[in-house]
Amino acid sequence: MNRQIDVCLSPELLNLYELEGRIVVVIDVLRATSCMVTGLAEGVESIHPVATLDQCLQLAGSGYLTAAERGGEQVAGFDLGNSPRAYLNGAFAGRKVAITTTNGTLAITKSAPFAKQVLIGAFLNLNALAEYLRQQPEDVVLLCAGWKGKVNMEDTLFAGALISELEATHTLCCDAPLVSKTLYQAVKEDLFGYLMQSSHAQRLSKFGVEEDIRFCLQADQYGVIPVLKGEELVVLPSTVSQ
Amino acid sequence: MNRQIDVCLSPELLNLYELEGRIVVVIDVLRATSCMVTGLAEGVESIHPVATLDQCLQLAGSGYLTAAERGGEQVAGFDLGNSPRAYLNGAFAGRKVAITTTNGTLAITKSAPFAKQVLIGAFLNLNALAEYLRQQPEDVVLLCAGWKGKVNMEDTLFAGALISELEATHTLCCDAPLVSKTLYQAVKEDLFGYLMQSSHAQRLSKFGVEEDIRFCLQADQYGVIPVLKGEELVVLPSTVSQ
Hints:
The structure is a homodimer. The first copy, chain A, is an alpha/beta fold.
């Protein structure tokens, strides 16, 4: 199989990428996609990503827990913020969650109408994702959520980590995959130390979420891959919830 | 002086950057900005960047030499293509040149209405540019021309090289400067070998321009900095033409 892998470093560039017939992996390591992986792995039934705070609150009426983050902080009046550790120990097993974040949910809703399949990636499910993609015939586009449209560090690093796992089976399309891979290879021995130089990590560390950052950088904690089914994220059937 | 430096990795992201009152450095290493530096250093009187082939041809009537490249190749009916080596040995000293390229001229015309000053950067004038920027009080935005809107390797690498020269005097704003710097530091010992893995270099090498690529990667060949004055690029007065 001759498959290609490309990286879109910002949702603002998504119009330059062909998504038709392809698998899109949405990446928002700090912290939306890390929450999604953790939540579903810890027994949450489904996650409904929405673009706005209003849409999120509307779902509360249908029994959803609501999770909202803007600019790195939990929004008042919502059940949860954007910490993946809130889902540990099956805290919300069996519940449905509606989630809205600054960048990650937008990346999902932008790619959903076009892609063949939308998956959720984070360091937490890196290996499960790599194994699944190796078995699929489709080309892959990694979509980094970035920060308010700009390229960010942690999502670029994760794209590089995933490409490092796939370069034996997939052809790197353009320069962004090579940029991501080289970056990851250069700093992988101390991801946390390096990332703490980045603007988003510094922004987040003001909110006391250094522990979240350490949690989100742990590779292969979970075997689940969230997949978009209709409007909701559920566990991809071939992967295993904890 | 507390100055900031940021990197816009694609002209498609330019709307996210504040340019007002700032110095913008346009970067299109392969090969538009390398041509501009070489041309002006080799005695060309001025360079008029235009967006379209038609605009370029119209200037021929006013005595301009015309230079046009699309998709990496010289366009039929124009005097010059996009090889910086064509300007060597003062071949066109005293002439005016109108130039249109796939990405570089667009980056210039997009930033011109907003920036305080638009400069042209390439490895060929790296050190002259760094020295000049160290002396200016303004914040700096490095604008990579990319490839048809996508992030490319060679422009990201040059941004990283320039940031490496300026990190003692300028604060890195967001993640893109850190990505660029880390990438450059990781591969600077063999820029040519690394770059030949990139898609644009491979695309260009089909046209037999490997020598151009080697030429464009030479640091500090020239002391001139092209600056946009009205609609034309001329030598920045404080810098020295050869």
